[in-house]
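Researcher: Structure for this, please.
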Amino acid sequence: MSNSDVHSRRLQATPRGVGVMCDFYAVKAENATVWDQHGREYTDFAAGIAVLNTGHRHPKVMAAVQQQLECFTHTAFQIIPYENYIHLAERLNALVPINGAVKTTFFSTGAEAVENAVKIARAATGRPGIIAFTGAFHGRTNMTMSLTGKVVPYKTGFGPFSSPVFHARYPNALHNVTVSDALDSLEAIFRSDISPQQVAAIIFEPVQGEGGFYSAPPEFVVALRELCDRHGILLIADEIQSGFARTGKLFASDYYAVQPDLITMAKSLAGGFPLSAVSGREEVMDAPEPGGLGGTYAGSPPAIAAALAVLEIIEEEALCNRANQLGSRLKQVLQRAECKALAEIRGYGSMIAAEFNDGAGKPSAEIAKAIQQQALEQGLILLTCGVYGNVIRFLYPLTIPDAQFEDALTLLTGILQEH
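Model: Predicted structure, token format:
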């Protein structure tokens, strides 16, 4: 069946609110390559939106899931528990950058992880308020839409939203938002909207994902930690997109001198299987009453097995080092591409972004979209992001073969030189 035939069926069967980027349909994938039903190959620099740091169908992940499927697929951990859930919690408790005793609980999606981090923070503090940041993306549920700092397309037509939720400014040197500006906006919220004594948590992305891959300046994170400590507020690091070797460290929070109280994670945690987690300080995590946390599919056995394999792969294949090597090579190519529209290259490890402006120096979603479309036509899948839609983010599997990576960079260079 042709792509156009399947496309017609999709329009008939699914709502228009589910936006779809590619005009082909996947039938097979392996590591960094996807094939459509006509046998055409694509190099995947999207990785299911940062889900496949270990690549499509990593053999070790597949073997772990197959072994689990021979035992059982589901019991609901809160009904009949299983040891692998505990094993993965122990592994993450030892790995997350939070000092002291740590506990972890599992869910299915990143939005669920964020929702439950908010629940835990409110239970631990007895306070209702949550502060997030402009440009943030935390999910598509009502609470996580409320936290998200980008209206189109995520919030359009879906209000009213959860409250009390407030947005401070996120530091962004390229767009003239200094660390002082961001901290002043927090103080303005405390003066005008909610007292700090009513704020349960401040949630931030150490590297904003959908917002444009802007990294939080170290002095800003230190100031957030100090502010939270001064007012008894919990600090939540949303590492859903930045976790599991993407930034050249296991977590982006590892780059900072201070630590959060809670960390949310998902995406590449389980190598393509739906799993998310919240880890945090023991006394905070224990605040909800028994039964207050959970979910029918929370901590699905096949996904738990996959995640244990992912952690082994990251260590055995030195994927943090690999992320730094690949990211350094990508930055070199971008810097040498002689692209007039390229306004900035940024990012840790392999969480790299390129931002594009027009001839007047204004953000240009049109240029970013044109580059994305040209790449897709030549078999390279890229994603855009950013509040202005003018950023291309690079999310190739960290396991991508060197030759395939170099071929993709050559193709990308040719496209950039046209802009």
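Researcher: Any notable elements?
Model: The chain has 13 helices and 15 strands. The chain has a mean pLDDT of 96.
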